[in-house]
Amino acid sequence: MELLNNLAIGFSTALSMTNLLYCFFGVLLGTLIGVLPGLGAVATIAMLLPATFSLPPVSSLIMLAGIYYGAQYGGSTTAILVNLPGESSSVVTALDGYKMACQGRAGAALTTSAVGSFVAGSLATLLIAMFATPLSAFALAFGPPEYFSLMVLGLVASVVLAHGSLLKAICMIILGLLLGLVGTDVNSGLSRFTFEQPQIAEGISFVAVAMGLFGIGEIVRNLEHEAGGARTAGIPRVGSLMPTRDEIRRIIAPIFRGTALGSILGILPGGGAMLASFASYSLEKKLSPHPETFGNGAIEGVAGPESANNAGAQTSFIPMLTLGIPSNAVMALMAGAMIMQGIQPGPSVMVEQPALFWGMVTSMWIGNIMLVILNLPLIGIWVRLLAVPYHLLFPVIIVICGIGAFSVSNSVFDIHLMAAFGVLGYVFFKLECEPAPLLLGFILGPMMEEYLRRAMLLSRGDFTVFLTRPISATLLALSAAALALVVLPAFRKTREEAFHEED
Amino acid sequence: MIKNEKDFWSGVMFAAFGLAVLAIARHYPFGTTTRMGPGFFPMVLAAVLAVFGVILIVRACLAKRRDRITGVALKPLLLVIAATVLYGALVEDAGFIAVTFASVLVAARASRNGSVAAQLALAAGTTLCCFLIFIQGLGLPLSSLGAWLK
Fold first, then answer.
1. What is the pLDDT of residues A195-232, one digit of tens each?
2. N or C: which end of chain B has fewer CB within 10 A?
3. Which UniProt keywords apply (chain A) (predicted)?
4. Do the Cβ atoms of B62 and B8 come closer than 8 Å?
5. How far is it, in rounded angstroms, from Cα A72 to Cα A254?
6. Is the pLDDT at A502 greater than 60, yes or no?
């Protein structure tokens, strides 16, 4: 069987001592980041990108992936214990998880969350393994017009499922695409938008952009709402980790439903983990015979969303790994990491680098096991870390960002560039412009231009090529439909409501 | 009077950026649709961006709903950025140790919390840890003392 063969290749890579170690580092750091206040997965991965450049590509990607799903776990811990979701995807977990903690059932909630995440993570990993081969084979038949249309669809979908104003999000994408074009044009050798600065002749440093927008900008944003004093007060006792018999019976179905829902929504661009957890919560509430218990410590309200967000986090790798199209900011960073390692993300990765591809997929499953071990017995350590006050944390983050920006190409210029993007990040926040679409555009900018150019060359300047080729036309039709959906009043209303719960 | 300030200033930002790109990119060869020059893609994108920016401005002027920009954290912003720029400006001349210490101190002022003693301890601790990890451990090519102190 091909699937088993592929998994065997994967395990032989992922189970090497070095890769196990980096996987462990990744999930450990991820959990730490998820637990620490005010540090998101995007900022952390951006911060640690430079440190992984010296590693072999597969180890660095395994570690970065570990940080991502580790942060999902850690985020739930804080959501349950102190009602502070560390990640946007664990906002829903806080609703019932924290109520359970107040009733002395924190341990059961944490176990539910860990077990649910593990089941979801395992099944979603299997799903990636099954879907990756056919999707890649399909994508290998793509020509330049199809790729261009696929990128259009990816960018459009990321906007539709993101929150906030549609027009602003589209503007942010275009801004990102333009920023991505800075540097030497590969076709003509002309330096574009470089203002004769040799440091950006190769393009703007991706790390500087990501760390500025998501690291530095985020710090200022957190400081704006900084309250006095530490938040040590009111961390409830964890209590027994074992759920009761009745609770075990009640969580099984929500875990599987959440996994299914999360796996599907995770594949969609822009949605990923957060959307999945919201959808699962409302589904469980609708299906429950006692919907009134939701919001008052219903264990189903922890099990469903927690499984969904972890499944979504895993399957959001599918479009990036098979098609080369990142579906959210974290995936954009992963794609950036691959590019900096000299690997062009896309369908050819699986064919040319099977060990890298399958090693990464299987490492996710191994990482999920590690997370269960890390989180349940060691919960006491994480609880203590919850008490680290933000004012002792952010100056350290700034210094590490500075070192990180410098180390990519040993250039002081990149530190200043990061500072500039930090200001921009805060301006975007104040103007309610989401920075994630900008990052997607930034990664896709040069690729989109190149595919457009090739498509036009092949069609001798005929723009209808995008509509006459069936796959390309379908992709563009889907993009148009997605945009039309947002403009429709009915959908617009539910979309706004769905995202309002989060604020 | 503009009611929706957030949309208005977003529009101004996007329109200005679009126009600036148009002004620069018009010097690049545009090419034909068959053979797109280096100016083609940026010109098209920038034009769309500028138009969308103007739409945002117009929409904000017509908006009925109030959406003001409030609570700009100017002091934290300035201090955080100052700490970052300081790091970049001085890391080669003052050296890793001095600049790390100074940056943490400047950054820590951005918070309302924490005493001066705690901030000094934090700066010292961070400097020591970063020195051990990045200079000794990872061998980052930065001088620990810098040009001034040598």
1. 888 888 888 988 899 889 988 988 898 888 776 544 54
2. N
3. Membrane, Transmembrane, Transmembrane helix
4. no
5. 18
6. no
Q: Which residues of chain B are within 8 Å of residue A396 when distances are taken between CB atoms? A: 104, 122, 126
Q: Do the Cβ atoms of A455 and A465 come closer than 8 Å?
A: yes
Are A398 and B123 contacting, i.e. CB atoms less than 8 angstroms apart?
Answer: no
The answer to whether residues A94 and A306 touch, using CB atoms and an 8 Å cutoff, is: no
| Number of domains chain B contains | 2
Rg (CA), chain B: 24
Q: How many C-beta atoms surround the C-beta of residue A393 within 10 A?
A: 18
Residue B138 and residue A415: Cβ atoms within 8 Å?
no
Q: Inspect the interface and report whether the beta carbons of A419 and B81 lie closer than 8 Å.
A: yes
Distance between CA A243 and CA A205 in Å, rounded?
48
Same domain, B108 and B87: yes
pLDDT per position as a tens digit, B116-125: 899 999 999 9
Q: What is the ipTM score, two decimals? A: 0.93
| Residues B54 and B83 placed together within one structural domain of the fold | no
* Contact (CB<8Å) B80/A418: no
Which member of A193, A399, A456 has the closest CB to residue B103?
A399
Is B68 part of any domain? no
Put simply, whether A201 touches B (Cβ < 8 Å) is no
Give the pLDDT band of residue A324 (cuts 50, 70, 90): confident
Domain identity same for B79 and B128: yes
Contacts of A392 in chain B (CB under 8 A): 114, 118, 122
Residues B84 and B53 in one domain: no
Nearest CA to CA, how far is B64 from chain A (Å)?
16
In a domain, B17, yes or no: yes
